[in-house]
Every structure is written in structure tokens, then in C-alpha cells.
Amino acid sequence: MDTNVDAVFLTPASDGIEFLPDGPGIYCALNRATRMINIGQAENLRRRCVMHRSQLRAGTAPNMRMRRDAERYGADTYFYYVLQEIVPNPKKPLKRMLNQNEVWWVVHLQAHDERYGYVSEAGGCRTRGSRFRDRESKLMRHNSQKYALLPGVDLYDPINHELLASWVPGS
User: Fold this and answer.
1) What local confidence, expressed as pLDDT, does residue 1 receive?
2) How far is CA 89 from each of CA 16, 26, 46, 96, rounded to the nearest angstrom?
3) What DSSP state is assigned to residue 45?
4) What is the DSSP letter of 149?
5) In the prediction, which pLDDT does 87 show?
6) Which residues have CB under 8 Å from 139's CB, separation 6+?
7) Which of the 8 DSSP states describes residue 8?
8) Measured between alpha carbons, how far apart are the two ends of the chain, in Å?
9) Residue 167, CA distances (Å) to 6, 92, 93, 121, 170 in order
10) Mean pLDDT, consecutive 10-residue segments, the chain of 171 residues?
11) What integer pLDDT is reported at residue 142 of this predicted model?
């Protein structure tokens, strides 16, 4: 059996989950078709990524952009790997360590930017894009005639980066 990491990564049959540890840390889910990434935290990395895979296969993933891409390219197009294993420290709560490290990875890999990643929340903080989508969803309620998306535009299409930067929450 070839245990070369590149061979495992490029093999569509492998999603990397079998190599994940059961401990806490920060993981990445890479969509091999789009090169978009999702970064998350978990107290049990393997169990969390198995849950991602199951939700994507069932079409029930809470991240609508990941769900849409799983429908387009297949749920098995995602590859999961560890960015950082966290060693628990009795002087610092594990959740705090996970939150801090998740934010660091999201910012450094730009996974919160919709051009590169799927992250809508990191370390308990919602991204600007996810807050904008929440606002759009509220405005588009079925009982409201105030707001509609342009024809051919989906609520989960990437948001124009320059327009998002000009958006003022609550406006």
C-alpha cells in the first residue's frame, strides 16, 4: 500500500478522515474541485469531520455554501486534515484555546473571505459576510414585499468583496 501523503490526498476515494486523531484541534475541509476551504475546531477531530461528511452526503449541512458545492461536485470532493492539534492546558480552558487558534487559522488562510473559504463563524464570532446574509434573509421574509434578490442570483452566491467592505451593518 502506498502511504505517500500526496498519493492519499489526490486519491478521490480517500477523504483523509482515517488519518485524523481523536483529540482536540483545528481542522480544515478542502473542496478539491473549487479549492475553497472550511476551517473549524473540535474536541474530537475525527468525530467532527465524520459528522461533516455525513451531513454533506445527506444534504443537511448547516453551511449552505458547502452544501451547495457538495450538490454540484459531490460530497466526497472534500478532503479533511489537521491544521493544529491542541494540547490541553490546565491553566487555560480548552474552549478558549480552540477559539483563539481557530480565529488565527481562519484569518491567516483567509477562509472568512468568500473568495477563498466557507467560514461564516470563527471562535464564536460571525463574519461580515454571514451578518450580511442574515440581514438579507430577514429582509426577504415571505411576508415582506420590501426586498428581493436579482433574477438569477442565489442567496449563497459569493458576495462582491468591494461591496461587502462598504456595507454598514444595520443600514
Assistant:
1) 42
2) 27, 16, 21, 11
3) H
4) P
5) 93
6) 146, 147
7) H
8) 58
9) 41, 36, 35, 18, 9
10) 48 81 96 96 96 96 93 95 93 93 93 88 75 70 65 66 67 54
11) 66
d(CA 91, CA 148): 50
Query: Residue 69: what pLDDT?
Result: 95
Beta bridge partners of 28: 39, 81
Q: Distance between CA atoms of 50 and 56, rounded to whole angstroms?
A: 10
Instruction: Please name the residue that has the C-alpha cell 483529540.
Output: 23
Cβ atoms within 10 A of the Cβ of 9, count? Answer: 14
Task: Report how far apart, in Å, the C-alpha atoms of 98 and of each of 59, 88, 154 are.
Answer: 27, 10, 33
Report the pLDDT value the prediction gives residue 8, as an integer from 0 to 100: 46
Helix (H) or strand (E) holding 84: strand 78-85
Amino acid identity of 13?
A
Strands 37-42 and 78-85, bridge-based pairing: unpaired
Which domains are delineated in the chain?
5-124 (3.40.1440.10), 127-171 (no CATH)
Residues 6+ apart with CB under 8 A from 15: 53, 76, 78, 79, 80
Question: pTM for the full model?
Answer: 0.76
DSSP 120: S
Take residue 1 and report the three cell numbers written for it.
500500500
